[in-house]
Specification:
This protein is 45% helix and 14% strand. It has 385 residues and is α/β, with parallel strands linked by helices. It folds into 3 domains: 168 residues, no CATH class; 41 residues, no CATH class; 122 residues, Glutaredoxin. It is globular, with a radius of gyration of 24 Å. It starts with a helix and ends in a 13-residue tail after the last helix.
Length: 385
């Protein structure tokens, strides 16, 4: 009976770790952004620069550990590794539940979003199963020979790294984000009919006498003055709604400061939008294919726009390429750009407000045939905003 339970538990734990790791490997940047969310909540922003490396390493460990459990290979080592991992995951999800500062823990990426409580319950069940495996780890024998097990584990390591490399270069293989091909952006900016939005309150964190204090926006202290140094602000969830708009904080702000989102997205015909939080000072590798795309778009009267979090850098980039003033530049919330452009930059092809296709900086050349086949547009449909 115990032997049967060990086999079943090994299978469940191993497959869950592999499944969770593969889903996150499809979008390692998503996990790194989730790590940054925790780092910011813990007032450790200095760690944000390491979040992507930590994300890649954690995903590899998760997949390899899952494979090792299925193989029953060196359970003395991997038993400890699994226990440490699940204790760490349980701490994160437990903290998210208790604090309320992090709503989703990213356990299964954006493809299977789990609320903090659901993630915490899942981790507790996994903890029980891993404790069972850990207790009887000496009784678990490998399924294959040492060389075969090492070969399978090496393949799983290479596979997990390769999937992540591809996703970082060419966008996720399976697009589970709100900006996937076929999405109508204006439609996704609206919550479902009849839904109740979340109820939140704006909280401000200040530093006073070397101590951090927190106040609601309408409950600042009576002695509030310049001695209170601003640290950060955040929206604290008071009551969870039953739905929210899939696309949030997407607004295209022009140089004049006006919101031109609907003016751009509701414009008939095709349009190309290049999303990037930042632009390089030097000549990037994607500059040549983008120049070809821009020339093709101009010949067909298809407007091209830049959406960025740093207008100064984008203006300098355009000036350096001799096309300053030719491409309208809009600023947007950085979080929205991070969601829309998992690789930076990412080029979108839209027809009116619907996403027809998108390409990362590394795959811009594959956009040539698609753009070349687009029909020429009349000037009436592409008046600049």
């Amino acid at each position: 009976m115990k032997k049967t339970l060990l086999y079943i538990t090994r299978f469940l734990v191993g497959m869950l770790f592999i499944f969770s790791g593969l889903i996150k490997a499809n979008d390692p940047l998503g996990l790194s952004y989730k790590m940054q969310e925790f780092f910011d909540v813990w007032h450790m922003p200095a760690l944000n620069q390491f979040s992507l490396v930590l994300s890649v390493v954690m995903i590899i460990i998760e997949i390899v550990a899952g494979v090792a459990v299925l193989l029953g290979w060196r359970m003395q080592v991997f038993g400890w590794l699994l226990l440490i991992l699940i204790l760490f995951f349980s701490f994160l999800t437990g903290y998210a539940v208790i604090s309320g500062n992090v709503r989703e823990c990213g356990c299964f990426g954006d493809c299977i979003p789990l609320q903090a409580m659901g993630s915490f319950i899942k981790d507790l069940l996994l903890l029980l199963m891993i404790l069972f495996l850990f207790t009887y780890r000496k009784e678990i024998l490998p399924l294959f020979s040492r060389n075969t097990s090492v070969l399978i584990l090496t393949f799983s390591l290479i596979l997990s790294f390769s999937i992540q490399w591809y996703a970082l270069q060419y966008l996720p293989v399976i697009d589970c984000l709100p900006y996937k091909v076929g999405t109508n952006i204006p439609g996704k900016m609206k919550p479902p009919a009849g839904s109740v939005p979340d109820s939140t309150v704006i909280n401000f964190v200040y530093e006073k006498n070397n101590k951090q204090v927190e106040y609601a926006a309408d409950k600042l202290p009576a002695d509030f003055d310049s001695s209170y140094k601003f640290v950060r602000r955040y929206d604290k969830l008071i009551r969870t709604g039953n739905a929210e708009a899939p696309i949030k904080d997407f607004s295209l702000i022009g140089e004049s400061g006006n919101d031109s989102t609907l003016q751009i997205l509701d414009k008939p015909g095709y349009k190309l939008i290049l999303f990037s939080r930042n632009f390089p000072e030097t000549n990037p590798s994607w500059n040549k294919p983008f120049s070809i795309i821009y020339t093709m778009a101009r010949s067909k009267n298809i407007p091209v726009y830049f959406v960025t979090g740093n207008r100064g850098e984008s203006d300098a980039f355009l000036a350096g390429n001799g096309i300053s003033g030719e491409i309208p530049v809009f600023t947007c919330d950085v979080t929205a750009i991070k969601t829309a452009a998992r690789a930076e930059p990412t080029l979108y092809l839209l027809k009116k407000g619907t996403i027809l296709d998108k390409w990362s900086y590394a795959g811009l050349e594959s956009a040539f045939p698609t753009i070349n086949e687009l029909a020429h547009q009349t000037s009436d449909s592409v008046n600049q905003p």
